[in-house]
Write a structure and sequence with these properties.
single chain, 2 strands, globular, ATP-dependent diacylglycerol kinase activity, membrane, Dgk1-like, Dgk1p, transmembrane
């Protein structure tokens, strides 16, 4: 049997699972036939088929990303709307006098529930497929096979709600909800025009975070706290004009700095859904306490 016969035999024995594998296998068997003849070519074909059996041939696709394209994939509009809405919902609950300490246990319960769901889906492909089809519009592609960013979001809030005063906790949530969204939106649009500050962080994004942080602090401390003073118990609000050497305008500017720093600092590549509320809580608390009368 000649070399050509060996090639024909090896090619007929192969049933490649993809066109790419077919080409690669064909080339490998041609070389094998030339060197060792048809008998070794058969064993090579069998070995190749066994190896291919462990290669995943399907991948989970986020259908919503395919249907809406850049609307979800690039601009992440549903994700940003959801992200921002949490701040507005929290602000509404504040005006209704909801005790912010009562939010801690629901956050812990939500974290445990989502963590268990992620463990299940990351170890059960079929469940992961159903999960991604259900909430895929709110997910990034990298989250298909990793833990969901919502876990980091909730974990950061648990930290803030556990250790800080009412106003500091709520401001940290607002900065996460609004400043981070503004930084991501402006940074993606104009970040290439400004210097890069850290991994995926640009000066344009940090300036957007600063501006939103200033407005957020000005509105919360200047309007909502005085207007809805009756929903606050004694000692819940850390900053007041009577107890601080900082004016409202100065506090607002410092709030913008806190927003920009919290959004711009990259700590060990941790998810900024966790680092922003943690850092903003620490920074705001330090600023307010430092200038206490």
């Amino acid at each position: 049997m000649g070399n050509n016969d060996g090639v024909a035999l090896s090619n007929s024995a192969l049933e490649p699972r993809t066109k790419v594998n077919q080409k690669l296998s064909s080339r490998c068997h041609k070389d094998s036939a030339k060197k060792t003849g048809p008998s070794k070519d058969k064993s090579s074909s069998s070995s190749s088929s066994d190896d291919d059996a462990h290669i995943p041939v399907t991948e989970i696709h986020l259908k919503s990303h395919e249907w809406f394209g850049d609307f979800i994939t690039k601009h992440e509009v549903p994700r940003k709307v959801f992200h921002s809405s949490i701040g507005f919902i929290t602000l509404y609950l504040y005006t209704q006098g909801i005790n912010y300490k009562h939010v801690l246990w629901p956050l812990i319960f939500a974290f445990i529930t989502l963590f268990i769901l992620d463990l299940i889906r990351l170890n059960w492909p079929f469940f992961n497929l159903l999960y991604c089809r259900t909430v895929g519009a709110l997910m990034r592609k990298k989250e298909i096979h990793t833990f969901n960013g919502v876990l980091w979001y909730i974990l950061g809030l648990i930290f803030s709600f556990s250790f800080f005063s009412k106003d500091v906790t709520l401001v940290s949530l607002f900065l996460l909800s609004w400043s981070d969204t503004a930084a991501a939106t402006i940074g993606r649009k104009y970040g290439h025009l400004t210097p890069k500050l850290a991994r995926n962080k640009s000066l344009a994004g940090s300036l957007a975070a600063f501006a939103v942080g200033v407005v957020t602090c000005r509105m919360f401390y200047g309007y909502f706290i005085p207007t809805y003073y009756y929903v606050n118990k004694p000692g819940e609000i850390e900053w007041t004009p009577e107890t601080s050497r900082l004016s409202l305008n100065t506090l607002s500017l410092l709030g913008g700095v806190v927003a920009a720093l919290s959004e711009g600092i990259d700590i060990f590549n941790w998810d900024d859904n966790f680092t922003i509320p943690v850092l903003s809580s620490l920074f705001m608390n330090a600023v307010i306490k430092l200038f206490k009368k």
